[in-house]
């Protein structure tokens, strides 16, 4: 690929968010973020968004959160390694035409299940505080009970949360409109950094090879960078409008191509590079698999890709939930999804054994207490961030 291709685009984008450089590290890792860090100064919109509320801030500091939590876990002990989502939180819960559940597996890795459990339980506590609702302790218990139920009976899916139908009712099922909305998110690439036709053709061949779909499907009609997300707002990622199964524009597909974010080694997680960890997690944890999913390497950099659905909405804590009871339904659904996915394995025999091991040690760590500590630490760090920002 030419230096004017995807690699050159990296120079036009800010560095990955919540990197080590962003986090104030005295003797031990903390959740404190410097608002004067280069990646936040380069993205003033994100810089202000982090000051809005603790849960938004919490979304940004997943890497440091994982490091701090690893250090808080009791040393030693039997903790079977599972496929982790890596960043489960309430606003990772997605609703589509086809289904619902946790999405966005960019931070997936391998480690103890308690990491996912504490991360989501902390999100529940922060969401409850954000809405001024009572009963966070009971909700965390419901979440954990649903997780255990999935370990006992992974085929018995929980009821669909009521909020899913309400969000889905807002969808526009006109595919032409959906494609136009996606194109509106594409930031044009500078002419001297846009990939050549030859580069796009080569990329289409690579996408076809790893996905098993015909090369003609991946003919690129339009592309651009995009900056959706909080933790991933500054990551290198693109939207491509591709041909689809026929030349007709109505069945064009929006493909998201994202540079793989390396997972650094922590005291309790495996260091992983490349797209395999993301594809593995999505296949084991997602209720519905990605379409056109795969991974490619371009000039030594790893990317993963998947098709967007026509309609897709992440849950918004402030706008989508009418009551704590509705959030509790989401908590139960996510608990079940994580329980079923954590015990996913290459064979049913292995999965059965892993479920038994996880149940035998459940809850193992004190998830309610740890999530309470981490929620308070996140809120304290958020307040310090606002002070440093002058709010």
Distance between the termini: 45 Å
Give, in order, the helices and strands: HHHHHEEEEHHHHHEEEHEEEHHH
Low-confidence stretches: 1-29
Question: How many domains, in number, for the residues?
Answer: 2
Mean pLDDT: 86
Largest sheet: 5 strands, antiparallel
Count of DSSP-assigned helices = 14
Topology (elements, then pairings):
Layout: H1 6-12, H2 38-41, H3 44-49, H4 54-60, H5 62-72, E1 81-84, E2 93-96, E3 100-102, E4 109-112, H6 114-131, H7 136-152, H8 162-168, H9 175-184, H10 197-211, E5 220-225, E6 237-242, E7 253-259, H11 276-285, E8 294-298, E9 301-307, E10 312-314, H12 324-342, H13 348-360, H14 367-389
Antiparallel strand pairs: 1-4, 2-3, 2-10, 5-6, 6-7, 7-9, 8-9
Helix pairs in contact: 4-14, 6-7, 6-12, 6-14, 7-12
Can you walk through the features of this model?
By secondary structure, the protein is of the alpha+beta class. The protein has two domains: 20-92 and 112-169 and 332-389, no CATH class; 175-312, Phosphorylase Kinase, domain 1 (2-Layer Sandwich), CATH 3.30.200. The chain is 43% helix and 13% strand. It has 14 helices and ten strands. The protein has helices spanning 6-12, 38-41, 44-49, 54-60, 62-72, 114-131, 136-152, 162-168, 175-184, 197-211, 276-285, 324-342, 348-360, 367-389; strands at residues 81-84, 93-96, 100-102, 109-112, 220-225, 237-242, 253-259, 294-298, 301-307, 312-314. Strands 5-6-7-9-8 form a five-stranded antiparallel β-sheet, sandwiched between helices. Strands 3-2-10 form a three-stranded antiparallel β-sheet, with helices on one face. The protein has a two-stranded antiparallel sheet with strand order 1-4. Strand 2 and strand 3 (100-102) form a beta hairpin. Helix 6 (114-131) runs antiparallel to helix 12 and helix 7 packs parallel to helix 12 (324-342). The N and C termini lie far apart (45 Å).
